[in-house]
Amino acid sequence: MRTAGTMAYLRRKACLLDARLRTMTDEPEKGLATAEYAVVMIAATGFAGLLVAILKSGAVKSLLTNIVRQALNV
Prior knowledge:
Layout: H1 2-24, H2 30-56, H3 58-73
């Protein structure tokens, strides 16, 4: 019986140690926010470039011009 009690004690201590190590190593994940921010900024810049290219096209430019003209004529 003493062996079973000792094993339970060791398991409990191992769980506490595991929890403590996870808590102590939690801070390195703060760098992930910076990396995720960089990826989002690159994606947003690419999307903005695509949007500018689409808006500069002749068809979209004439469509927007017609919408503005109709709005000002009313």
